[in-house]
Specification:
Layout: H1 9-14, H2 35-44, H3 47-52, H4 54-68, E1 72-74, H5 81-85, E2 90-93, E3 97-100, H6 106-110, H7 118-135, E4 141-147, H8 149-158, H9 166-174, H10 176-200, E5 204-209, H11 218-238, E6 244-248, H12 258-262, E7 266-268, H13 275-281, E8 287-292, H14 296-299, H15 301-314, E9 320-324, H16 334-345
Helix pairs in contact: 2-4, 4-7, 7-10, 8-9, 8-10, 9-10, 10-11, 15-16
Bound molecules: coproporphyrinogen III.
Coproporphyrinogen III binds near residues 27, 145 and 208.
């Protein structure tokens, strides 16, 4: 026999292996639907303190692993820690979401800290990764992550989540040089941040482009595909075997060829694309992850089981990591996650 395949199921799927039962994890698996998460978050006092206290961040990362034996664990942190590390003010309004100081012009970009300065703020995150690398069960893969430059830029420009990313599109049109400089700074910081997560023990990294769907035509190539290609290229130049998952959420037809064009090992599918279509047009290039609609974990019932099985069946001919199309919501019933796992694992 030649060299044995990597043993962990997630790494095998990411290497292109078709497994009889797909490995599984969930976006936002450490989150408010779990009573143990709510208790640890209360102990921390607020969300950002939770993110920056390594022992507590590691604890909430491990909670869903203990409860469900997922095949992967995702570092507990947030994509908005990078803007904060670059000098933006960041706070979370309970029940509403994140707020940041805004950037609207070249002076705002020039006032950001240099990329090398990010580690000052982000070093507790690396400590969380080191704790997890020690404490996770041997068969569980540790995933690190960052936001993609476009998605992070939308929050830095608007100072909050926006339904249509209007302020970011407006700055891109009115101040193209400043906008490009901001994208450049975030891209460099993201490479630096993910390199440090890998050095601390992350085995896989995922790039979340939650707002990629609002980029069309050349803008998609320039601001979603190209930054992802650069980040993947830089990471793999340093760590040739490092698997990378990309999530250009709501990219629609742009999902086709995205892995090939960026050099990523896996594309995460949201729940707007049909699984049979994605098997034919996206999975042909390698591993896919997704795409159960999160609302099924609120409702449960026969639709949860039939949809889960339909997705497993659709992707059974190639490498697949079962996941949701977006994060599990606070209203989800933790028992429904057991029902989903039963439908996948039997
Ligand atoms: O379990 C995991 O998935 C890992 C941790 C993780 C969080 N956020 C924790 C979190 C990850 C990977 C993220 C990514 C993230 N953060 C994204 C990209 C993925 C996506 O959801 O589209 C985005 C856009 C953010 C920014 C962000 N963080 C928003 C918009 C919000 C508020 C909305 C919400 O769901 O509350 C957050 C807060 C946040 N990040 C929570 C968690 C568990 C809830 C905070 C709380 O406890 O109140």
């Amino acid at each position: 026999m030649t060299q044995a395949a990597p043993r962990k199921t997630i790494l095998r799927a990411l290497a292109g292996e078709t497994l009889p039962v797909p490995p599984v994890w969930m976006m936002r698996q450490a989150g408010r639907y779990l009573p143990e998460y709510r208790a640890t978050r209360a102990q921390a006092g607020d969300f950002l303190t939770l993110c920056y206290t390594p022992e507590l961040a590691a604890e909430v990362t491990l909670q869903p692993i203990r409860r469900y034996r997922f095949d992967a664990s995702i570092l507990f942190a947030d994509i908005l820690l990078v803007p904060q590390a670059l000098g933006a003010d960041l706070w979370f309004v309970t029940g509403e979401g994140p707020r940041l100081s805004t950037i609207t012009d070249g002076a705002g970009v020039a006032a950001l800290k240099p990329v090398e300065a990010i580690h000052e703020t982000l070093s507790p995150v690396y400590e969380t990764v080191r704790i997890l690398a020690r404490e996770l069960p041997g068969e569980v893969t540790l995933i690190g992550f960052a936001g993609a430059p476009w998605t992070v830029a939308t929050y830095m420009i608007a100072g909050r989540g926006t339904p249509d990313q209007g302020p970011a599109h407006a700055m891109k049109a009115a101040e193209p040089a400043a906008f490009d400089a901001l994208m450049e700074r975030i891209t460099e910081a993201t490479i630096e941040y993910l390199m440090a997560q890998v050095a601390a023990g992350a085995e896989v990294v995922k790039i979340f482009d939650s707002w990629a769907g609002s980029l069309q035509g050349d803008d998609f190539t320039r601001y979603a595909l190209e930054p992802a290609r650069r980040i993947v290229g830089a990471l793999k130049a340093r760590h040739p075997g490092l698997p990378v998952i990309v999530f250009p959420r709501q990219a629609g037809d742009h999902y086709v060829g995205f892995a090939r064009a960026t050099g990523a090992d896996c594309v995460a599918l949201d729940n707007s694309v049909d699984a049979d279509w994605a098997a034919r047009h996206v999975q042909v290039d390698g591993c896919v992850q997704g795409n159960l609609a999160p609302h099924h974990l609120v409702e449960g019932g026969p639709a949860l089981v039939s949809e889960t099985k339909r997705i497993v069946r659709a992707f059974s001919g190639g490498p697949h990591i079962f996941n949701l199309g977006h994060g599990i919501t606070p209203e989800a019933d933790p028992e429904n996650v057991h029902r989903m796992l039963e439908a996948i694992r039997g």
